[in-house]
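Standup notes, protein team

Yesterday: finished cleaning the Zhenpiania hominis set.
Today: Glycopeptide resistance accessory protein VanW structure.
Blockers: none.

Input for Glycopeptide resistance accessory protein VanW:
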Amino acid sequence: MKRKRVTELFPGLLPLRKRQRVFCFYAGMSLDGNVYAKERKIDDLPWVQYSGFSLLYNQQTGFDMKYQENKVFNLRLAAKKLDGLLIAPGETFSFWKAVRYADREVPYKDGLTVVNGKVAASPGGGLCQMSNLLFELFLHSPLEITERKGHEKKEFPDAHNSLEGVDATVSEGWTDLKVKNKTGQTFQIRIVFDEKRIFGILRTDHRPEVSYKIRNEHLVYQRRDGRVYQRVSVYRDEVAKNGEPRGRTRLLYENCCEIGYELPAGVEIKEEMGK
């Protein structure tokens, strides 16, 4: 039997544990030798490396839609710290370093998040939608991803069709999304909203010579010990500026997560044989 965390046995200790972890989290970054991106620029850099979007409201969560409204509020707060952020040569981007004080004047609202393995409402809930979008931008660039953790469990379907396994969970004090700029060019994050979508644009001060295509292979669903898991390979192809493939394909990673909702009819689920 899996041992329970102390905070699961004594939930009242969770706020104290979180404060301790957050303090150590940022103290560690101040001593790790990285130069973290912090300068923001209002004017756009001239070239677009990649742009993507996601839908703001997910109708398939099974929870009150007020939590989706709260999530959008949280995303807009975080975006104020991210929009225009420059990642200069040699600098490292950290999601939490960038948005650390986003809620200093106006607090985050309760959005959906996972606490001790269960979906719950918590201040700042829903910020993973922002980290997911940023991770997608970074995968389509020459920036080097130095820290990323995928979600262990997908609690509900995506709001729109997207690549599987292209996500990055963030939890202040525990997990971060980081990239390092080892190129000679500067990149800029832009975040834009309309009524239904959040857009992410990664701009640069050099004309991109290469673009990138992210794709899935070997997508399978497996049932093990009564639970369903998704396994997928995430590949990246390099494409020249004229649209011609450059013949450089790289397996980025293998992703595995538990599926916490009922899959659509017709999706094959393979039974994993016991050892």
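Follow-up from PR in the comments: The radius of gyration is 19 Å.
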